[in-house]
Amino acid sequence: MTRIAIIGAGRIGQVHARAVLAHPQAELALVCDPFEANARSLAEAHGVAWCLDAAEVFASDDVDAVIIGSPTRFHVDHILAAVAAGKKVLCEKPVALELSEAERCLRELGENTDVMMGFNRRFDPTFSEIHHRVADGEIGDVQQLIVVSRDPAAPPAEYVAGSGGIFKDMTIHDFDMVRFFLGDIVEVVAIGTNVDEAIAAQGDFDQVIVTLKSAEGRMATIINSRTCSFGYDQRLEAFGSEGTLSADNLTATAVRKASGNQTEAKSRVMDFFLDRYVDAYRLELDAFLTAVADGSPMSPSVRDGYEALRLADAATISAHEGRIVSL
Ligand SMILES: NC(=O)c1ccc[n+]([C@@H]2O[C@H](COP(=O)([O-])OP(=O)(O)OC[C@H]3O[C@@H](n4cnc5c(N)ncnc54)[C@H](O)[C@@H]3O)[C@@H](O)[C@H]2O)c1
């Protein structure tokens, strides 16, 4: 049984708490959040202890592992303090807001491999099936990848302000997926625009398109929007020399309707990450607990987090300076 503390009891902290509570090899031992109302409401809902200061988590003998769901600017300090205290770590994306912080994390971790990055989409059953089938050679050599990721609604302004911008906060998942499929990236071109005035006022984009070229000459396109009228739009297509493998949006049931003005109509797509990726978070936790139990290196690693952040920086430069960025 792995005793887990959750640091940060916000949106993603609550998602992880549900996954931990449902897992037979995990126990939710402690919830930490400096905002007492947040710590209390998550902890007391499940009858577990809570605290306000992360130092208490790291000092606790009742905690084997921590899940870090604090705002991004705290991730590196929380990772390093947890590892120094001998805890295993599952940390949310992105690893940091600044590349220099991610470099510090890598440097101070050295050979330590006890930290897993929360790139949950790698564990999504649909996307991981495509990944396995690509790896098995089912569509020959992969030549192009298309990743579509649109959120149903923009996050609150205060979240956007601390998020590091769309490339680091949102596209980071897709940068990781592109690396997962195509390996290292050598060229990045990005453009961005706004349909959301509140986000524009913060100097951030809310719609972006990024094109990337891998070291092996394969290409990927990522399409992101902070808003989408029909829900959480999560699709992927791998195009290879022998065919394509693609995944459409998931709906709650497989029921389809035909009528006078519709054919093949399904119910709404799943609303947001809590529903769409519930299996991914469960399988991510499962992979984490397996690595905790057998002591194997965590994957995706902090190096993966660093590389995705490097792509976010390159995309930011490309979109603002209107040029191809070579890595
Ligand atoms: N993998 C995913 O699908 C996914 C989804 C959403 C968010 N995230 C990531 O999770 C992190 C949190 O995002 P969120 O949407 O849950 O934000 P949120 O604002 O809903 O929650 C953050 C929580 O952290 C708490 N907090 C603030 N300072 C803290 C500190 N010093 N120590 C501990 N807790 C602190 C806040 O009180 C709040 O309860 C971000 O890094 C974000 O990028 C990942």
UniProtKB/TrEMBL annotation:
Domain of life of the native organism: Bacteria
GO cellular component assignments: cytoplasm
Pfam families: GFO_IDH_MocA, GFO_IDH_MocA_C
Similarity section: Belongs to the Gfo/Idh/MocA family.
Record domain Gfo/Idh/MocA-like oxidoreductase C-terminal: where: 134-327
One GO BP annotation of this record: NADPH regeneration
Its EC number(s): 1.1.1.18
Key word Oxidoreductase present: yes
Entry-linked InterPro entries: Gfo/Idh/MocA-like_OxRdtase_C, Gfo/Idh/MocA-like_OxRdtase_N, Myo_inos_IolG, NAD(P)-bd_dom_sf
One GO molecular-function entry: nucleotide binding
Domain Gfo/Idh/MocA-like oxidoreductase N-terminal as annotated: residue spans: 3-115
Alphabetical UniProt keywords: Oxidoreductase
Keyword check for Ribosomal protein: no
Gene this protein is translated from: iolG
Protein name as catalogued: Inositol 2-dehydrogenase
PANTHER family: BINDING ROSSMANN FOLD OXIDOREDUCTASE, PUTATIVE (AFU_ORTHOLOGUE AFUA_2G10240)-RELATED, NAD(P)-BINDING ROSSMANN-FOLD SUPERFAMILY PROTEIN-RELATED
